[in-house]
Design brief:
The chain is an alpha/beta fold and 367 residues long. It is built from 13 helices and twelve strands. Helix 1 crosses helix 2, helix 1 crosses helix 3 and helix 5 runs parallel beside helix 6. The protein starts with a strand and ends with a strand.
Length: 367
């Protein structure tokens, strides 16, 4: 496949990518959410000129070439832009082959157990527990994630005592059979994280995410080594050399790459293989209902070291108003606590024409 045209349709929050090859075949992908309009500029200025008109048969090498040529820009925006190209490539390839993307990477259509993932910290523990109980009844979820501390909170909570209250409150509300997860979003020092982790262990939690500032790998490893609960992380990391170091040192027990933060399916598969060689599972980060959760569903149906569940955001238009009305047909349904990958070619979605008509449009073409 030789890409000839890259088109982007974006607003501040979401950026869809349409890729067209030399034969007129097309595929849809997405750059990462948040400041997607900026990411689309990076895609057209720094990625498209290096990819258009080139043979994509060795996608890994081609994506490496972009990062090498753009070596002065080693950060997140370049990888988020690469993710837009990569995910559109896989959709195009799947449509040409008549197969879902998961089949192209070794998987098959079918269900994936999901956990209900809360983004909220401005909610009382009692109210958080009540909505998790409701979701258990309505959707059949048996695993649930809430938030600890404040996001990158320098050791502080949203209000005093919130974490100490929510840990036992959720356990009592959901009962002994529920799997409970918690995300600290880089809040704590190692000593604080270990203290919170002990409390989580006492209440039967199974997953303690990003307890320390994520860039401080030694701090996170100190916590992981001290606790029996699974310490998890990796969502923010977009550099493959950092991933190699993180995996080799055993910084966490469960690795959580975000497909679009990292740069797409191909680069995420490389992380999955590294983690698999180290005997560690992959439970990716996918915290909204744009396309990133669908990409993750296809990945989890294919990799041998897939973790126990899919992250599934429970936040609707009150929290993420921008994720409404993106698709002609909603690709997400939860039944008995599971999401489902269809056997439709590619990603199996159609972006809403009404949404596209309201978006900012840009196009890059091969010379």
């Amino acid at each position: 496949m030789i890409p000839q045209r890259i088109e982007t349709f974006c607003n501040q929050f979401v950026g869809f990518v349409r890729l067209t090859d030399q034969e007129g075949n097309q595929g849809w992908g997405q750059v990462s959410t948040y400041n997607s309009d900026i990411t689309c500029q990076v895609l057209h200025r720094q990625v498209a000129p290096r990819l258009l008109g080139r043979d994509c048969s060795d996608l890994d090498d081609l994506l490496d070439l972009v990062t090498e040529r753009e070596h002065k820009f080693p950060g997140s925006y370049l990888r988020r832009a690469l993710g837009g190209f990569d995910t559109a490539y896989w959709d195009l390839k799947g449509k040409v082959a008549g197969k879902p993307v998961t089949a192209l990477i070794g998987g098959s259509a079918g269900p994936i157990r999901a956990y209900a993932s809360s983004m909220k910290r401005d909610i009382t523990p009692k109210d958080e527990a009540a909505r998790m109980q409701r979701l258990a009844g309505e959707k059949g979820f048996t695993a649930f994630k809430v938030r600890a501390g404040a996001e990158v909170g320098r050791g502080k909570d949203e209000w005093p005592g919130r974490t100490e209250e929510i840990i036992p409150t959720l356990r009592k509300a959901m009962g002994p059979g529920a799997e409970l997860l918690i995300d600290a979003n880089s809040c704590y020092s190692p000593a604080q994280a270990i203290e919170v982790g002990r409390r989580l262990e006492d209440n039967g939690y199974c997953h303690f995410e990003e307890p320390c500032p994520y860039w401080e790998l030694e701090q996170t490893k100190e916590v992981a080594d001290a606790l029996d609960i699974d310490v998890t992380g990796g969502e923010q990391d977009c550099d493959l050399t950092v991933w190699r170091r993180m995996i080799e040192m055993g910084a966490v027990d469960v690795f959580q790459p975000d497909i679009l933060y990292l740069g797409g399916i191909a680069r995420t598969l490389r992380v999955c293989r590294m983690a698999g060689a180290a005997g560690r599972p992959i439970t990716p980060h996918c915290a909204n209902l744009s396309l990133v959760t669908l990409f993750t569903m296809h990945l989890l149906r294919a990799i041998p070291n897939a973790g126990k569940y899919l992250e599934f955001s429970i936040e609707g238009e009150d929290y993420y108003p921008w994720q409404e009305g993106l698709f002609v047909e909603d690709p997400y349904r939860i039944e008995d606590g599971c999401a489902f990958v269809t056997d439709r070619p590619g990603w199996g979605i159609e972006v809403s024409p009404e949404w596209l008509a309201r978006s900012q449009y840009h196009c890059s073409e091969a010379p």
